[in-house]
User: Fold Glycoside hydrolase family 92 protein from Maribacter polysiphoniae.
Amino acid sequence: MKSLSFSKPVVLSHGIFLLCCALSLWSCNFTNTENTLTSKVNVFLGTSGDHGQMSPSASSPFNMLSIGPQTYAHNHTGYDYYAKRFEGFTHTHLEGVGCTGSGGNILIKPIVNNDFQTHLLKSKQHASPGYYQVSFKNGISAAMSVNHNVGLEKYTFPIEANEKGLFIDLSFALSNRFISEEHTIEKNIISGWIDTYSTCHRGVYRIYYAMRLSDFSELEILNDHQYYVSLPQNTVNTIVEIGFSSVNAEYAKSKLVSTNLETVQKASNQEWNSLLSHVKVQGEEDRENLFYSLLYRGLQSPYKISEDDGTYAAIDGSIQNADFEVYNGWAIWDNYREQLPMLSLLYPNKFKDISKSIANLYKYGKKDWATKHEPSPTVRTEHALVVLLDAYEKKYPLDFLPIKDSIIAEVNRLNFGSPDKALESSYDLFAASKIMETLNDDELARTYWEKSLDYKEYWEKDFADLTKDDVDRMQARGLYQGTIWQYRWFVPYDISGLIELIGSEDQFIKDLDQFFEEGNYNHANQPDLQVPGLYNATKQPWKTQKLFRNILLDTVIQNYFNDNSKGIAPYIGRIYKNEPRAYLRTMDDDAGTMSSWFVMRSIGISPANIGTPIYYLTAPIFEKVSIDYPNGVKFEIEVKNYDKDHFYIKSATLNGKALNQNWLRHEDILNGGKLIIETSKTPNTSWGTENMFITNY
Assistant:
């Protein structure tokens, strides 16, 4: 494929191209019926400022193609709910990540009067899963929908407008991350590839695309990367159809099947509804709506990048073939804690291939950040070993032998250079030790195990003494994103050992009490995300029950944001709100991480430790929960004597038998059954204190 280069503008003329059945169907305005779960999803949740960094773009589950608005000003996904001025529409959006975001490829802007500065000032907008529509004050409107790696965009112009057209910028990307592109033009199809720096300018991803235009009279090349598509004077609607592939432009072209907007929207809606309905909740309407709006966010990435025949692009740039669905688009340092465990529990058929895809990274040169040959936008892959161990312990089929050498190489690169990295790398050593056990490599397993226990020395050095004046200061002693207080709990695989380091269970509880009472917890970021659940590993699990309910639904006080230490005016209010400014300031959703934290705890289940197939129990915020599994298996949770304001567990039964422990195994849930939890206004200080589960290394 050769890059186009011109010394002066060139005009390509041809007849008007019509998509099959388009004229009769472009005016449709398909909306969800009230009995679908997609009607409960608010896609505008978390789309303003640094309160989630999400986008209302038209998307389908696990799809790297998403089409949505580019506003000025914008957040990390290119959009802000309260912005009025639109710059156009782009086709990639990695949701909720930092470093000013990722994606924003291929800008299309509808214009009139041959004016590339045409003002697109929002009049009204509407969106639902798989669909986005907006109208502007100048009479232009746009609607778009996406199914897997194919999308349709409909641009509507006032009949009286002069010189209607589309401005197309193939070099557009968020934060000036565009690198290069090559494309060809064949009649009404522009196709090629685009290279873009990924999140934080770390690594490069390449997308292949094919874009089919309809109803145009001329295609003017403005420069190497920009085009002006002029439309006939009597045109009201014009269509852009686009296909994506990780492999090549021919696969992208094959996605262009001359369908219509209504068909794509219905298919996308059905796919979303099918996935959302795997988990049914029954309770207050506002809670249901919040739940499904956040579950929706947990089902957008990673992206399926393999074609139907198994072909995909590996992270070394080679083209490979797999007998499973291959995924890419990782933010594992963030979402290994919540989103990936959620998928492992609620969507086992999807997670089976996602876990294989993570293991598959090791064959082709996995790095902690994006490589130079990613097939989609991606962020980071630290703690992939923890995810793989977690999958293995949950009986997902993984073969570690072919990637053993790569795992060893990654372990040899682990960083112990700062207090937080020392604890995090020790966690990876724990996972590597367990993986080597599965390979019967007792020597390496013992070596990694012994080295992982060095966390105790790091902990004694930096985290034992809380009298120093920097323990509540963000990034003290070289910490990346957190404080000494917040990181001192990061030994999730050996809470028993951590209790011993602190001195006793009573002192452990006392320190936890101080941590929360003094407002040291930071829900705006991930380093201490597991800490509210730590009372579950003590004789006082009811304190976790209260903390979870507070964070899920009630007013809290938060002193920390990701740009300050304690001392700036605190936030007082709810964290999870079903509105554009949904989260705490500076609280990114991080590819479904924070949404999934809510989803799991709202149904009464939370991981004890990623790498251990155990879940702690707490009171759901719903009266009933049902999880559908393959072959008709269901796991049901019912709250006895339900009261929306009660959250302490009085008693529980599992399949009719009294359950006095506050935890279940992964297989207990996937095998199906019925869990009945009786709640009360006051804590039962004896429930959950028998047969306690405490991670012990």
